[in-house]
Design a protein that fits this description.
Strand 6 and strand 7 form a beta hairpin. With 501 residues, the chain is an alpha/beta fold. The protein starts with 10 loop residues before the first strand and ends with a strand. The strands form 3 sheets. The protein has a 6-stranded mixed β-sheet with strand order 8-7-6-9-11-10, sandwiched between helices. The mean pLDDT is 93. It has 3 domains: 112 residues, 2-Layer Sandwich (Nucleotidyltransferase, domain 5); 161 residues, Nucleotidyltransferase, domain 5 (2-Layer Sandwich); 188 residues, Hypothetical protein af1432 (Orthogonal Bundle), CATH 1.10.3210.10. Helices cover 48% and strands 16% of the residues.
Length: 501
């Protein structure tokens, strides 16, 4: 469970579908190191395309798909296991996005994960930690994105505190500087909005909680470039430097009148929104100066992807933490895991479960199917599903966490097919196969004893499964036989046929 059996691919790629820009980074893995060989960035401004009902407009969809088609040409020959694509705040927020995501996957040629804010924060910190020399002690990392702002405190490569705030440079521009005018009144209103978001987390991220500060991503780098070019600082972002740049914006009076040749046009157009967030973060958290990291989310994605092959998958650590937190019976989890993986090997090809995620989800579900018992025995499968859907589980994209939740929630009693119909393809169809395998594995280990199960043969065909036991074994185990009869009834009600012999 800790590491992959597959060799590390020669080339890895990460794609970040941000609220302001889409980024792609490609790296070659050689002699234990990642070397960046290609970077692409396009200012798609997806966050600006959300309407009042949080639906993406046609123009932003067209820009996004055109960009993804170009990215897709670069990724065309790469295997799915060597590419990670994530969507952040805008795609978390957008409603009725299913059709867009389907077209986006087709254009890019790879599945898209929509990650939670705290997972985005974890990956940002990972990217910073791998690309910035450690100064020792606790480190504050701040990343002002297009639709959200992440704050992290960590030490070494480990995070201690994670927060994702619902403010970003694109959303702030839309709310307070939509027509490009920059006035003291508008800046004051934008700063007040930033204060309101920052205030609840100030105590957890104030100056006494960390030793050094690092900024990540485009807004921070843009400010650093301007301050360095104007001789205000040596490239670090300082409190005084941020106030100086705000004064420059106010003197210009409009985005179109800003004279900042150090910045691209698309970055200049969202600068005031980013500055409003930055200045309040510096003032409220007690930041005097901040160095700027070379890496952020996409670099974190690369190192997290590499960890799935070489070190330990962050998802495995999350599963292990959930086991400990909810007092899982490890021996029973081992029994169920062994059984369900043996079942998977027999039906993998017939049911089209060759995707490595199928085995991983069954492993995780086998280990976590009883976590709901810590809440109550009645409906414990539902409690477990709720915990898995809503818990912070580092390493898990939303779609994978939802899939795991659905499989655990369906492992006993009546099978509700509606629960997995909203999963992303192809799991909206294949989740049911995973559920059936887990249900059988749990049922056959109901005795919780150390005695091994006999050899059990499975034969799958469409929505039907035949389960064959050694001759006479079911007669010697009448309770199991009765459980299997009840299971056949549950599955029949869901349009699935189970035959036992």
């Amino acid at each position: 469970m800790a590491r992959s059996n597959a060799p590390v691919p020669d080339v890895l790629a990460a794609v970040d579908l941000g609220s302001n820009s889409f980024h792609m980074i490609v790296a070659r893995y050689s002699h234990g190191q990642l070397t960046i060989v290609d970077r692409l960035r396009e200012p798609v401004r997806l966050g600006a395309g959300l309407d009042e009902q949080d639906r993406l407009n046609r123009e932003s969809i067209a820009r996004a798909l055109a960009c993804l088609e170009r990215f897709g040409q670069r990724l065309h020959d790469m295997k799915a296991s060597s590419v990670r694509v994530v969507g952040t705040n805008t795609l978390r927020k957008a409603k009725r996005k299913g059709a867009f995501l389907d077209r986006a996957r087709e254009a890019l040629g790879h599945p898209i994960e929509i990650i939670a804010g705290v997972e985005e924060a974890r990956l940002i910190y990972l990217g910073v930690a791998h690309t910035t020399p450690s100064e020792g002690g606790h480190r504050l990392v701040m990343d002002i994105g297009g639709g959200s702002t992440e704050l992290i405190i960590g030490e070494g490569f480990a995070t201690k505190r994670l927060e994702s705030l619902y403010i970003g440079c694109v959303s702030m521009m839309s709310a307070y500087f939509a027509d490009g005018e920059i006035t003291e009144k508008r800046m004051r209103r934008a700063r007040t909005a930033a204060q309101l978001e920052l205030e609840p987390v100030t105590a957890r991220f104030r100056r006494s909680e960390w030793d050094s500060a690092v900024g990540a991503s485009g807004t921070m780098r843009a400010v650093s470039d301007v301050l360095l070019a104007r001789g205000v600082t040596n490239g670090q972002v300082t409190r005084d430097g941020v106030h100086w740049l705000i004064d420059e914006c106010l003197r210009a009076g409009a985005v179109s009148k800003l004279k900042l040749p150090e910045l691209t046009q698309d970055r200049q157009e969202i600068l005031p929104g980013g500055l409003a967030i930055m200045v309040e973060a510096f003032d409220m958290l007690g930041i005097e100066s901040m160095r700027v990291a070379d890496g952020a989310l996409r670099e974190g994605l690369l190192y997290d992807l590499l960890g799935r092959f070489t070190d330990e998958d962050a998802r495995a650590r999350s599963v292990r933490a959930m086991e400990a937190r909810f007092h899982v019976d490890a021996a029973q989890a081992d029994r169920v895991e062994t059984t369900v993986l043996a079942f998977l090997r027999q039906v993998r090809e017939t049911w089209g479960l060759e995707d490595p995620l199928a085995e991983l989800v069954l492993r995780w579900a086998a280990r976590l199917h009883e976590i709901g018992l810590d809440i109550a025995h009645a409906h414990y499968h539902r409690h477990g599903a709720y915990l898995l859907q809503h818990a912070d589980m580092p390493g898990f994209p939303r779609e994978e966490q939802r899939l795991l939740s659905v499989v655990v929630g369906g492992h006993r009693r009546k099978l509700n097919r509606e629960l997995h119909e909203d999963l992303v393809p192809p799991w909206h169809l294949k989740a049911e196969f995973l559920i059936v395998l887990l249900r059988l594995a749990v049922l056959l280990n109901r005795g919780r004893g150390p005695r091994a199960l006999p050899e059990i043969n499975l034969a799958a065909r469409g929505r039907a499964l035949e389960v064959a036991f050694p001759k006479g074994w079911l007669g010697e185990h009448p309770l199991t036989a009765a459980d299997l009869e009840q299971e056949a009834e549950y599955l029949r009600a869901a349009g699935f046929r189970l035959r036992v012999g």
